[in-house]
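User: What would this chain look like folded?
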Amino acid sequence: MVFFMLAAQAFGSVALMVLANRVGLNVKYRAMNKRDARTWFPVACSQALMLYTGGKALEYLNVPLFTVFKNLTIIAVAYGEKWVFKAAVTSLMLVSFGMMVMSSMVGAWNDMTFNGWGYFWMSTNCLASATFVIHMRKVIKQVNFQDFDTVYFNNLLTLPLYVVLSLVQEDWSGFVDYYSDKANAVELNSFARGIFISGIAAFAISYCSPWCLRTTSSTTYSMIGALNKLPIALFAMMWFPDPVTAGGVLAVLLGFGAGLVYTHAKNVQKQTQPSGSQVLPPPISMDRLDQTARPDEAEHPSNK
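Assistant: Here's the prediction, encoded as structure tokens.
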């Protein structure tokens, strides 16, 4: 019931924002309007397509092999940014991308298999993922969204998409039959608590993701997405009884090395960048927006 959980998370994120605004917290977001909704809707569709194709790929591929292909998306994002935003792709950045792909390949070496449909869905997922992060960054800049605006619009517009995908793709009859049994009542309560907690976490993720895209780049965002799997793998080696293999240790070391090389590449790029130039606009101050009325204020009223 993946899409059902995604729909619950999207609903929870919107509900949290509305509740925080109603009780007087400093959570301000642009009211839903047709022009911005039309502009943002392709982003919502690309996110739904990314998640759908990822789920289909996992039906045919194991998780380690899925991770190998997912890390290849970083290269697609980097060259997508080069094409759309004229961003530079340096040799050091390519070295870090190669190390990240090698890291996932070493970790998945014993799980390498070939599956035509799996490769098809995985290729589609890589394309959808790259399109999502690049287009999202472009639209955030185009409509001048602040971070809470992005959270509100993205979750509200993806909610009906997730509901439709859940109704079409998922086994609702089996879900209802299983939890209608009184013997599974305790598990149902745990499931409901899990959805509630995941909804809060989803709100945090949907706030941090556009912030990262707006203040850094799509490539950095994708690289962080690959790197955040490494601490999980490291903690699993330390705390769980699974055997620690040389391949697993080498994969983690390569991954952390890739992160260090990428950080160095960005620092070098920043030093060679002309003074005053900046790829993305700086974060927009809420106070400055309150003091300076936008020309389209009447068309885009804010919920305050």
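Residues 33 and 169 are 30 Å apart (CA to CA). If you want, I can go into more detail on any region.
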